[in-house]
Structure formats: structure tokens, C-alpha cells
Amino acid sequence: MANRILQKAAGNIPQGHSDNPPKLYSYPKYWAECFGTAPYLPMSRKEMDALGWDSCDVIIVTADAYVDHPSFGMAVVGRLLEAQGFRVGIIAQPEWDSVEPFKALGKPNLFFGITGGNMDSLINRYTADLRIRSDDAYTPNAEPGKRPDRSVIVYSQRCREAYYETPIVIGGIEASLRRIAQYDYWSDKVRRSILVDANADILLFGNAERALAELAHQVANGKSIADLWDLRGSALLKKDIPVGWTEIDSTRIDWPAKIDKLPNPYDFHDKQQRELDKNQDEAVPVKIIPLPLQRKVEFDSQLSYIRLPSFNKVINDAPLYAHASRVLHQEANPYNGKVLVQKHGNQDVWVNPPPIPLETDEMDWVFDLPYQRKPHPGYGDARIPAYDMIKTSVNIMRGCFGGCTFCSITEHEGRIIQSRSEDSVIREIEKIRDQVPGFTGTISDLGGPTANMYKLNCKSLKIQKTCKRLSCVYPTICKHLNTDHSPTTQLYRKARAIPGIKRVAVASGLRYDLALKDPEYIKELVTHHVGGYLKIAPEHSEDKTLSKMMKPGISAYDEFKVLFDKFSKEAGKEQFLIPYFIAAHPGCDAEDMLNLSLWLKEHNFKPDQVQTFYPSPMALATAMYYSEKNPLEKVRYKSDQVSVCKDIDQRRLQKAFLRYHDEKNWPTLRKALINLGRSDLIGTGNKHLIPPEQRNNRHNTRKNSTRRRRT
User: Fold this and answer.
1) Could you tell me if 454 and 417 are in contact, meaning their C-beta atoms sit under 8 angstroms apart?
2) How many Å apart are CA 648 and CA 644, to the nearest integer?
3) Per-residue pLDDT tens digits for 466-498
4) Which among 475, 469, 556 is positioned nearest to 516, based on CA atoms?
5) Calpha distance 462→92 (Å, rounded)
6) Which of 53, 424, 498, 572 has the fewest CB atoms inside 10 Å of its own CB, making it the most exposed?
């Protein structure tokens, strides 16, 4: 107890790690609430003048066009802060070749908020083959080139240049997935935490409403961002570890076979501790526990952190990088995740535990904020494709417990599902009906990151708070997971009963292995909400590859198709499943792709749109791609290598197997089949995959005639 008193006096107890944070709507309003609600958050001084503002409290700089809609991050963040009483301005897609556009709204009173937008700027601009895309769906008229590569870094540096002393807060998916050292596919190297490169004061990861509201009020009350070092859902740079904390050393993967339980020789006193020791009788050292001893040594878990391998180590040691990735994903549960610390030069990147998920009433409050549900009028009649795609869709939940290794949703939004109430969803549908110009009566999508995880959570809060599973549905569906889809079924029925609503579509995002647990839901979906085609994602047919994806076996697809066809027939509809597959995923080789190609031919699928694995920052599959190790298992230097396809020609070959029916791919596939010893698949029969090379007889006749004349 004496130790805890000393630590509290020194400000080292993590006050921000509470499991019971204040409700988003419970904060006392900032004084600027007297200005009321802005019709649109201002993007110019003229708009600020019309609102009577002399300055902005917070300025959001975003790489997307400003659309005042709850599917766009800058709108959610802006309206959230406005509801707290702050004046919020937006600088959208500024020219970045000078500092002047970043001064357009003046100096913010509290901080700049920087986001790369709804998509990572590099994924937005480059294909998986590193070709430059010809358009940008988040820009007026889809015009390309309106955002810089690594937008968060560029914008942050310009804001620092504009107003050097103003704090910079970075967030959004681009920053969220780069909070520690991460493999960068575009430069083919491990890069530092984006905090270092952006020269930002703090990073908020995930859906950051909780952290942002707390941070804004604390800064408005005079605290510095450095004082908020323990804020959940945040990462920042620190030079000193707080006094009295215990370090769990996870910087190695091959520890000695036996570590004696001796008095810790690694105890040390940092500068802060020595200052305390001058005035206190009892020392509070920072302790270091080797990873193998963490369950054999008593320590205060609330005052402990895991030290990851440093940036300098992971850039030169790929297996160690895979180990760091594994640890990060194991500490993703907000209720039991520990602080992670990674050395970058002479500073530590201090990553706090994830934010506590929003309760249903808080989700409703966020989605009920006064969005105009349209692009800013400054864009005139320009078309913004991303807005056109979502303007009649409704997001009913957040998060995903699927844990697919190639996907960034879990890393960003977390595994715990956060659902809105039925009433909130119904209200939004009514707003779409009444506010969206040209609404035809069709809700284009009703879902979220996954179509059928609405209100599906762990049956036991106690178990949920201690669980460290990477997926609730792989390798099997957890027995503690609630799989009852009736809340979703009931919501579907209520939605399509709203006057003026002719159809509610569910076009994609279905976790079909989960849906199999509730055939009544499948019947409801197929009968009323599939418009001829339903896109689903088996991703592959081969178990060896699927195990690296953390996806179910192809037999689950077969079971789902039986029910899909059965209920379609009962409804008197001819409907089809459109499966998605990925080529060149870690663990997949040419033989696996050949088997997938044969599976496609057997099922008479001729995919038009196919995907090649795209190594996004921080994903587990990206760690596999870079390290050729499997972070789903304990990483060892001598552990088995993962088959990885990095050569561009091999990646294109795997993609060609998905489009075996395209004659442009036949020459490449013929060579591959011969190399695989499967030339028996070249022919014109049903058992063959591709036809043999066809020689042009007319060309050959002319060529032979020419030879005779010369003779």
C-alpha cells in the first residue's frame, strides 16, 4: 500500500485505464457551445464569420473530401467534438506543396486533428501490384492525385510548420495501423512508428470517440498532452518509464531453457525514482521480468507493461518482427490487454490498452448527431463516388471477431461487437428516406464490417474480460459466443416495414459459417434481402492456405450453398452466390492455386473480379509475408518457414489461376502446368483446365509457301 501511495503521488498510477469511462454524452459542455450547431462544419474563414466564430478550437485535416455523413470519419469526429461544445473546422484535401492551405482557418485553440481519411493513403493510390490507380473514390469527380502518399505524415509536418507550438493529434486507419514499427509493403522495409515520422504529440487508434472526448476536455482544462500518457486507445512518445512499473521483457524469442527464479538482477532506479528516494524511505524500483517468468513472479498487473523488440532489432530480424506482431495481437482485448512499449532510438513508443467499447446508448448518440448526410455544398454538383456508394446504406454495428489475418478491421475496430439499438437504426432509415435526394425506396445495405454480427457477443462478460483468442470463430466457433441471429432477423423485418421503404438489401460481408448456426436467419436473408446475387468470401479452397487466413474450410461454403439454394427455390427466386478468392496469400503456393482453379472449374465459376494479397500494415498475414514465419503460433528461429509469394511474376501467376478462363492467361498457365507436372490438365475435354496451344493454320500455310518460293 505504501508503494501505491508513493506512485500515486508521483502521478504514475494509470488513471486513464479505467474499465468504467464516463459516457460520451456526460461531459460538461465547453463554453463555446453557445455558438450552437453549424449546418456544416466550416471549411473557410467566410463560413466561420457567418457562424460568428473568431477561431476554431479544433481543426481537422483530412485526406478525404468532407462529407457530413456518419460513414465518414471526419464528420463523426467533428460532430462529436461539436456536441461537446467545441468549435470545429475542417481542412479537406489541402494542397501540400506549401504551408498556406494549413493556415486557412487560423490557429486552433486546442489542437490539430490529422487523419488520412477512410482509407490508407497508399492503399487508396496503389494496387496490390503497385500500379497507380486511375481514380480516387473519396475525391470530387474521383479525381486522382488530391492526397499525398503517407498523408498523415505530410499533413502533420505542414501543421507543425504552420503553428509550431500547437499540439498535433493523429488518428484514423492510416495512423492506427502504424502505431508501432510496421512492415511497409510500398518501400519493402520496416518503418518506424508513425508517431516518430509525423512528429505528432499523440496517436489515437481505433474508433477514437472516447479518447478524443477525454483528450479535448482535458486539454481545454489546461492539461498538456504529455499529462495524458495513460489515456486508453492512445500512443505517445516517452523518454522515461513511470516509477514503480514492472516490465515484462518480450524482446527475445529464444530464451534459455531454464531461468532460475532468483532475486531480480535487473532492478534499477531511473531518474524520477532517484528524485523520489531523496524524500522517501521506501524505494519503488522499475522491475524487469523475463517473459518466461511472468507467471511465476508476483507483480501488480495494473502497473506492468510488455517491452517489445526495439525498432532497431525488428528491422534486422524478421522472426523477431513476427514475434512482436503476435504479442500486439494477443494484447488487443481492452479488458486484459497490457501497455506495449517499443524503443525507437532514445525514446519509447508507449501504446496504451485499447478503448473500452461503446455501449448501445453511446453508439446511438454518435449516430444521432446532426449530420446533413450530404457532401459539403462547396463541392457543388461534383460527384463523390464513395458517398454515392453509401448514401442509402446503414451501419448497424462496429467491430469484427472473425480475426481474418489479412484484414485490418479487427486491428482497427476491435473484436468486441458494438451494436446500435433498433430504434436508432430505424430513425436513420427514416432520415435517408426523407433527406437523400432522389431516394428510390431501396436501402442499399444494412450491416457493418460484417453483415451478421449484430448483437453477437460473448455469453459471459467474465470470460470476455479474460479471453485472448484471436478469433471467436476460428478454428471453431467458440461455445461461449452467442450465435442467435434473431435480433438481426427482427431488425430486417422492422426495416422493410417502414413506410416508403421498398427493399432492404444485404449484398456482401456475410460470415456464412456463423450464419449456419441460425438457418432461420439464412431463410430471412435469402427470401427478402438478396437481389439475385450475394457476395461471400471463402477466400480459398485449400486448408493449408485457409489455416494461414484463419478462415473456415470450404465445406462450410458447401453447407451454406445448400441452404441458400433451398431457400431461394422456396421463395421462387433464381439467385446466385458470388464467391471472392485471394491469390498469393502467405502459405499459398502454385499447387494450392491450381487446386483452387480446379475447384472453380468444377463449380462452373469464372471470376471477373479477383484479389491479390495486399500486405496492409500491422496485419498478421503481413507479418507472415515479411518474416516467412507464422505468428499464429509461438515464433522460433527454427520454426517452419511459411511459403510466401513475393516475386511479381509469381504473384501474377497465382492471380492467373483464378482467371483460368481468360485466354490471355493461357500461355502463362500452360508453362506453369508443365512445371508442376500437370500437363494432363491441358486439353479440350471437361477434365482439362485450359486448351492446348492453337497454331494458326492459315499463318503456317503462308509461311510454308514463302519458304518454297525462296527454295
Assistant:
1) yes
2) 12
3) 999 999 999 999 999 999 999 999 999 999 999
4) 556
5) 43
6) 572
pLDDT greater than 60 at residue 50:
yes
Spatial separation of the C-alpha atoms in residues 380 and 48, rounded to whole Å: 19
- In whole angstroms, give the CA distance from residue 90 to residue 111: 12
Chain centre distance of CA 523: 31
Side chain identity at residue 141, one-letter code: N
The pLDDT confidence band at residue 521, using thresholds 50, 70 and 90, is very high
Beta strands in 5-101 (DSSP E): 58-62, 67-68, 88-92
What average pLDDT does range 701-709 have in this prediction? 47
**Degrees (nearest 5) of the Cα angle 363, 400, 118?**
70
CB 524 within 8 A of CB 564: no
What are the backbone angles phi and psi of residue 374, rounded to the nearest 5°? -145, 160
CB 333 within 8 A of CB 45: no
* Cis before 475 (ω within 30): yes
What average pLDDT does the segment 689-711 reach? 61
CA 295 to chain centre: 32
Dihedral angle sign, alpha carbons of residues 642, 648, 538, 448: positive
Buried b / exposed e across 227-257, counting CB within 10 Å, b at 16+? ebbbbbbbbbbeeebbbbbbbbbbbebeeee
How many residues can be counted in the chain?
711
Residues β-bridged to residue 347? 344
Q: Output the CA–CA distances (angstroms, integers) from residue 48 to 38, 88, 90, 110, 127, in the order listed.
A: 9, 10, 11, 17, 39
| 533-539 and 442-443 beta bridge pairing | unpaired
All structural domains of the chain: 2-351 (3.40.50.280)
**Residue in 128, 74, 79, 156 with CA at minimum distance from that of residue 384:** 74
Sign of CA dihedral 64, 67, 73, 75: positive
Three cell numbers at 650?
509469381
Strand partners, 339: 305
Cell of 365: 448518440
In whole angstroms, what is the distance from residue 593 CA to residue 591 CA?
5
530-557 per-position pLDDT tens digit? 989 999 999 999 999 999 999 999 999 9
Provide DSSP, 154-216: HHHHHHHHHSTTS-EEEEHHHHHTTSS-EEETTTTEEE--HHHHHT-SEEE-SS-HHHHHHHH
Continuous segment of H or E residues that includes residue 578: strand 576-583
CA dist., res. 363 & res. 397, Å (int): 8
Q: Nine-digit cell at 338?
A: 497490457
Alpha carbons within 13 angstroms on the beta-carbon side of residue 13 total 10
Which set of grid coordinates corresponds to residue 272? 524520477
Q: Which of 10-19, 279-288, 328-337, 431-440 has the lowest mean pLDDT?
A: 279-288
Q: Which residues, other chains included, contact 366 with Cβ-Cβ below 8 Å and sequence gap of 6+?
A: 24, 70, 76, 80, 209, 358
Q: Please list, in sequence order, all residues whose beta carbon lies within 8 angstroms of the beta carbon of residue 432, skipping any fewer than 6 positions away.
A: 373, 391, 392, 394, 439, 443
Q: Which of 664, 670, 676, 668 is nearest to 690 (CA)?
A: 670
User: Residue 443's beta-bridge partner residues?
Assistant: 504
